[in-house]
Amino acid sequence: MDIPSQHVFEVLSGKGVEELHHANSIATACQFLRSKALMSRGTVERMGLAQTAQSSDDVDKRYSIWFDVFLDSVDIHARAGRANAYGPVLFVFDLALIDRNKTGRIWVTKENPTKWAGKSDEKRWFQGKKELNDDFVRGRFDQMIVLRHCGGSLPFGRHLKKIILDDPKLKTDENVNIYSMAVGALRLAMQDANIDVPIERRRCKAQCKCKAHWSGDDERLFKMFDP
Ligand SMILES: [Zn+2]
Q1: CB-based contact 224:178 (threshold 8 Å)
Q2: pLDDT score at 67
Q3: Domain carrying residue 117
Q4: d(Cα 197, Cα 175) in Å, to the nearest integer?
Q5: How are beta strands 89-94 and 199-201 bridged, if at all?
Q6: 56 alpha carbon – ligand 1 mean position (Å)
Q7: Cα 95 from Cα 74, distance rounded (Å)
Q8: Is the pLDDT of residue 104 over 80?
Q9: Mean pLDDT in the chain?
Q10: Residue 50, CA distances (Å) to 45, 53, 161, 191 in order
Q11: pLDDT of the residue at 102
Q12: Distance between Cα 86 and ligand 1 center (Å)
C-alpha cells in the first residue's frame, strides 16, 4: 500500500528521523554518484551498468521489488555493530529527500522481504499514515522506506550530506590500501558529477564485528570494494 510522501515525511520527522541511509558497494555507489541518483537494482541492470550481486536479488525479483529503491531510517552498521550486508558505502541523506512532489508515493515495509513468504500485503506493508504513526519505530531494521514507481531512479540533488565508508584495514596483493583505493574511486565519481560531499572514515564501536566480516572472505571483500 502506498502512502503520500508528505505523510511519510511528517510521521518520520515526528519520530525524530532526520536522515535516511542507503548502503551499497563501491562500484554501485560510483554509478549512483555519476548519475546523481539512487537507482534500483533493476534499473542499474537495465542500463547495462556494472553492479554488485546481492544475496537478496532473488527475493527482490520474486516479490517484484526489483525496480524499487530502499532506504533505512538508521545507520545499521553503527547500530548493530556489524557490517551492512548491502555494502561498505553508506549514503547519508537529509529527510527532506522524500519531502518533494517528484518522490511520489512511498511504501514502508513492516518486515524485511526475506521474511515475506506466505504473508499478506497487510503484513508486508504499512497501510496508511495512522498505522505508520502508531507502529513505525525509528531504528527497526525491518521497517524500510521503499520508493516504488519513481522510474527506478531517485535524483538526490543537494540532499546527499555525506558518505560514511568502512575501513577494512586491509591491503590488496599489490600492497594497495583498500580504503584509500575506495576513497579514490568515490572521489573520481564525484568529480565527474560535480558533487562535493565529505567522505567519513567509519568509526566503529569497540565490539563491532565488521573487521571479521571483511577479513574473513576475500571474495566478498573485493566484490564490495573493487571499483
Ligand atoms: Zn564496524
Answers
A1: no
A2: 67
A3: 3-225
A4: 28
A5: unpaired
A6: 21
A7: 11
A8: no
A9: 90
A10: 8, 10, 24, 19
A11: 64
A12: 14
